[in-house]
């Protein structure tokens, strides 16, 4: 039971965020890792036999594995498997597989696994998707869930501590950041940051900011604020620029000392969400990178820095002026952070669901500052946000 106790917090946290039943995650972990005693589990914290794949640049563990030719002949090759710092990275990757599919298919074969409330239906969906070749795989999962009462962890979803997220709008005040095509980096990223934060707050996060207005902060002050608040994750938002106006694309960074683990997993999920938005308009993915940047070096929690295209590129600057495109970036960024932090998902209608009690707490919190604002525009903005929260929690608007 020590194995279940060790894994349960991750299964609850990331299962809830992804719409995957924690009982399913736990049963698969037990079965596929032999209670954490398999070679991959012991040496790589890899519970589900996930191979390296083309999108992984973290550490790997190489081991001999059996393959089968079309004629049935079994042979062995050395294969690279993903190596994680802890079990949590393995759980994140499994949930990502269920929410995003194989990556090489145009559809998600695991879509029916998501948002199930009955573990038997979830197991059947896993079987129907062809997850495992063992014909007894569903029976084994059912037996594990029932024998060890794993459904109790499904009921604990939503009872976890609110994650603390710090959002950092780059530059500010006397430092405009990159400038080009009539816009300034400091203004665009502040708007992005505040809007991402509002969505995450509506999803149940405790969101902190390095700045909420046009002020200058040292890089060391930003990192110090994150460390003092003991936040769970730090995300810094920026826009790129280069002397070559043809430079283009979205990229993300973690510190260059990071080699796999939770930080890399967080970067991977957020990056994939945002890069998909850029890909839909023909903007290239510059990749997931590493650098010795100060805010990444001096923060003690997982930290990711995002570069939302090039302000020096006319096409990408135009996108940053497009309110509909900004809406998509905000949503993608919030969803990426939410997925790795165990927050509520978007409903199928694209609206965030929340209970009235949480909505009213957020409205009261916002009202404490917005209602004392002297100008009508500020009051109108508060009323608009408050009504959005009321709608999200099925309350009448005012």
Write the layout of secondary structure elements.
Elements: H1 2-18, H2 22-33, H3 39-44, E1 60-68, E2 74-82, H4 87-100, H5 119-128, H6 137-147, H7 152-155, E3 164-169, E4 179-180, E5 183-184, H8 185-202, E6 206-209, H9 219-229, E7 233-240, E8 250-255, H10 261-279, E9 285-291, H11 294-297, E10 303-310, H12 314-320, H13 323-341, H14 356-370, H15 376-392
Parallel strand pairs: 3-6, 3-7, 7-10, 8-9
Antiparallel strand pairs: 1-2, 4-5, 8-10
Helix pairs in contact: 1-2, 1-4, 1-13, 2-6, 4-10, 5-6, 8-13, 10-13, 14-15
Structural features:
398 residues; alpha/beta; Lysozyme; Aminopeptidase; 3 domains; six-stranded mixed sheet; two-stranded antiparallel ribbon; 46% helix; 15% strand; globular; hydrolase
Structure write-up:
This is N-acetylmuramoyl-L-alanine amidase. GO terms for molecular function: amidase activity; N-acetylmuramoyl-L-alanine amidase activity. Residues 223-338 form the MurNAc-LAA domain. Keywords: Hydrolase. The protein is of the alpha/beta class and 398 residues long. It has 3 domains: 1-58 and 86-154, Lysozyme, CATH 1.10.530.10; 164-341, Aminopeptidase; 356-393, no CATH class. The protein has 15 helices and 10 strands. The strands form 3 sheets. A 6-stranded mixed β-sheet has the order 6-3-7-10-8-9, with helices on both faces. Helix 10 (261-279) links the parallel strand 8 (250-255) and strand 9. The longest helix has 19 residues, at 261-279. The termini are far apart. The model is unreliable at 346-352 (pLDDT under 50).
């Amino acid at each position: 039971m020590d194995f279940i106790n060790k894994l349960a917090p991750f299964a609850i946290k990331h299962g809830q965020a992804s719409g995957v039943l924690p009982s399913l995650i736990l049963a698969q972990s037990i079965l596929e890792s032999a209670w954490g005693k398999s070679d991959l589990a012991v040496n790589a914290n890899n519970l589900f036999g996930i191979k390296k794949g083309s999108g992984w640049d973290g550490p790997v563990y190489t081991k001999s594995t059996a393959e089968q030719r079309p004629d049935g002949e079994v042979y062995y090759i050395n294969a690279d498997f993903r190596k994680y710092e802890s079990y949590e990275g393995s759980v994140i990757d499994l949930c990502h597989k269920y929410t995003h599919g194989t990556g090489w298919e145009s559809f998600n074969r695991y879509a029916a696994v998501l948002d199930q409330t009955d573990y038997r239906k979830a197991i059947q969906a896993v079987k129907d998707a062809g997850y495992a070749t063992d014909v007894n795989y569903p029976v084994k999962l059912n037996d594990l869930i029932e024998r060890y009462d794993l459904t109790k962890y499904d009921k604990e979803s939503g009872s976890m501590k609110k994650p603390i997220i710090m959002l950092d709008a780059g530059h500010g005040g006397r430092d405009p950041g990159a400038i080009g095509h009539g816009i300034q980096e400091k203004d665009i990223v502040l708007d992005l940051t505040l809007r991402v934060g509002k969505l995450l707050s509506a999803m149940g996060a405790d969101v902190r900011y390095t700045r909420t207005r046009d002020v200058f902060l040292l890089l060391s002050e930003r990192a110090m604020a994150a460390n003092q608040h003991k936040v769970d994750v730090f995300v810094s938002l920026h826009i790129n620029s280069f002397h070559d106006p043809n430079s283009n694309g979205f990229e993300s960074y973690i510190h260059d000392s990071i080699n796999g683990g939770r930080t890399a997993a967080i970067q991977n999920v957020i990056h994939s969400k945002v890069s998909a938005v850029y890909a839909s308009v023909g903007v290239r993915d510059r990749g997931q990178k590493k650098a010795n940047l100060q805010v990444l070096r001096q923060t003690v929690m997982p930290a990711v820095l995002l570069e939302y295209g090039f302000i020096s590129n006319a096409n990408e600057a135009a996108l940053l002026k497009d309110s509909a495109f900004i809406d998509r970036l905000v949503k993608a960024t919030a969803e990426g952070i939410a997925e790795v932090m165990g927050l509520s998902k978007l409903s199928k209608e694209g609206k965030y669901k929340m209970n009235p009690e949480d909505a009213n707490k957020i409205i009261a919190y916002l009202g404490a500052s917005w209602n004392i604002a002297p100008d009508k525009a500020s009051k109108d903005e508060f009323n608009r946000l408050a009504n959005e929260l009321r709608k999200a929690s099925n309350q009448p608007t005012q």
